[in-house]
Amino acid sequence: MNAQKGAIQSILIGAGNRGAETYGRFALAHPRLFKFTAVAEPNPVRRTNFAAQHDISEEKSTDSWEKLLEFVTPRDVVFVCSPDRFHYEQVLALIERGCSIVLEKPVVVNTQQCATLSKLALGKNTNIIVCHVLRYTPFFSTLKRLLDKGKIGRAITFNLQENIAYYHFAHSYVRGNWRNASLSSPSILAKSVHDLDILYWLAGAPPETVVSMGDLSWFKKENSPENAPDRCLDGCPHADTCPWYAPDLYLTENTGWPTSVISDDTSLASRMQAIETGPYGRCVYRCDNDVMDHQDVLIRFKNGINASFSMNALTYNKTRIIQISGSEGEIVGDLDEGWIEVRTFLHGTKERIQLGSSVGGHNGGDVGLMNDIASIFKQIDDSPDPETNKTIQIKNSKSSIEESLEGHWMAFAAEESRKKGIFINMDAYKRDGVSTRETVNI
Q: Which is nearest to 407 in space by CA: 294, 301, 326, 331?
């Protein structure tokens, strides 16, 4: 939090795509709202670039998040944008410093960490906002308002479909950082904790039961075309017929995401070298990936709402599609196309809400999150007792840590259900770390 009126004094851990390109760029565009004063990033190119852009001194530009701890004070807001498996240790250390934390998802990568953080979240000095950016999109915010107003009576069922897109999944979950559960986390957590969280948020009640099934069906060696080499540029005879041929994805005029991720230098020569030697030039059928490329989850919430969620890698478009059935009508919508339609039973009316294009990443969710953080800390600064009010304001935020762990619990339960073919009783699972042992044919 600010020591004085003005920009929120911010510290960054991890100057990668989210840290530098999302939050860092927002701060540069809105210098009256945010000011980054320190950064920890092991990659020297990214660290140097971020420090230069934000006028950070050499002393406060470090290669280790541990070194950064000496600069952290209770008035700071620390953005944790490091790889998933570092989050838990970093958050524990930052809680000790009494600062506020903006934390990328997933918050934790196993149930033990989730249980510990759930207990810590009840403490009065745990001030964490989780980047569940879907809650901040105009699309899902509008859906929430419509449901709360009873536009279709009582909500009965949700059906949410996440179409990841063939190129996105291959980039991030076959060749990229989230390809292997032991290195990161299962795809239902790494990719779809957003979706499980949004279902919990829309339903307005904790989950009661979870069951799931899924597979890694396509991106594996046995589906490799005949004579395909380990790397695309090693003379692949299927270059003209493979949708995932690396040069077609990364050596185009587009130097934005996902191309910007493969090399710190986006020149053609550097990108060529990256796919010649780096992970993004590997054949998608010959990687060390093991996360599911499709998974379905069924959830029963404690207020009687049933929800189905489908995560699918093999889709043309990248979007989320939802259908909500109620006692007096239904709501359907497409996140990427930016429309929602309310259909009522009594008079057969259809009301189309055209949201249009959203500014910023995640369909406007990134901008919405940052504006909400700025608003929260303005209210804190304007209060008679900022330090006392800080915890109250953050715990009442749209995605406080207290609100944000339910989606993680559902993801862990879905993965156990998928592996063992069982229903998961969520109360028992969260209490004991075990599920009910009711076997089902899935």
A: 301
